[in-house]
Amino acid sequence: MNNADLKINADFAQRVVVPPVDAEDWAPSPCPGVWRHRLDRIGGEIARATSIVRYTPGAAFSRHTHDGGEEFLVLDGVFSDEHGDYPAGTYVRNPPGSAHTPFTRAGCTIFVKVWQFSPGDQQKLVLDTASASWRPGLVPGLAVMPLHEFDGISSALVKWAPHTQFNPHTHPGGEEILVLQGVFCDERGDYPAGTWLRSPRWSRHAPFTGAEGAIIYVKVGHLGAPLLQPA
Predict the structure, then answer these.
(1) Nearest-angstrom CA–CA distance, 143 and 95
(2) What is the pLDDT of residues 54-76, one digit of tens each?
(3) Handedness of CA 60, 112, 45, 125 (dihedral sign)
(4) What is the pLDDT of residues 102-133, one digit of tens each?
(5) DSSP string, the chain
(6) Residue 133 burial (C-beta neighbours within 10 Å; 0-12, 13-18, 19+)
(7) What is the dihedral sign for C-alpha 53, 58, 63, 65?
(8) Which residues fall within 8 angstroms of residue 50, CB to CB, at 6 or more apart?
């Protein structure tokens, strides 16, 4: 198979659950010391992709342009480029046409999505979620930190207190979750920190937490929505 035709979890009509990364899940990138855990992908080095990327101490990636935009959340360590340093908890959006040369001094891990911007979305955003405010959620025990919203697509962090139950609900535009802390649950299973879930359009569930509580990254409205496409 041509690398340009690489497809990983590329059927967006299917529900996908990827467990926390193991040592054998890391795939090398074109740059030494930069490793990828590929969650979904359509295409080769230029691709619509969702990944967890690990930089070993001192690693760097060659300068590149994000023609389709880039969204990332720093999971641990400090990620850097010529524009600044981004410690764990930093949420960044680099709009289409932006360029940078990433590196790390002590090592880091990021959750990153590329070629997933809506046409017309040109917002540059750097948000320190460690100091940003939480808003009350729709049920007791739930708190929400909005990250970004454009054209019906939204991203947020959601904090679940222990033993919180949310109402059964439907996601017309699909839902994507990365469990950051604790254990997130629904009627289909329990998902510990590091689990990535993608549920298709019109999927329905009734999520809850047990004694651990949870913090999750969640994105909704983007499955089936018009997005920029690699040439």
Answers:
(1) 28
(2) 999 999 999 999 999 999 999 99
(3) negative
(4) 999 999 999 999 999 999 999 999 999 999 99
(5) --GGG-EES--TTS-EEEPSP-GGG-EE-SSTTEEEEEEEEEESSSEEEEEEEEE-TT-B---EEETT-EEEEEEEEEEEETTEEEETTEEEEE-TTEEE--B-SS-EEEEEEES-PPTT----EEEETTTSPPEE-SSTTEEEEEEEEETTEEEEEEEE-TT-BPPPEEETT-EEEEEEEEEEEETTEEEETT-EEEE-TTEEE--B--TT-EEEEEEES-TTS------
(6) exposed
(7) positive
(8) 38, 39, 40, 41, 112, 113, 116, 176, 196
Burial of 207 from C-beta contacts in 10 A (0-12 / 13-18 / 19+) = buried
Paired tokens of 17:
């659950």
pTM over 0.85: yes
- Percent above pLDDT 70 for the chain: 98
The distance between the two most distant Cα atoms of the chain, rounded to a whole number of Å, is: 50
The answer on pLDDT for 144 being more than 50 is yes
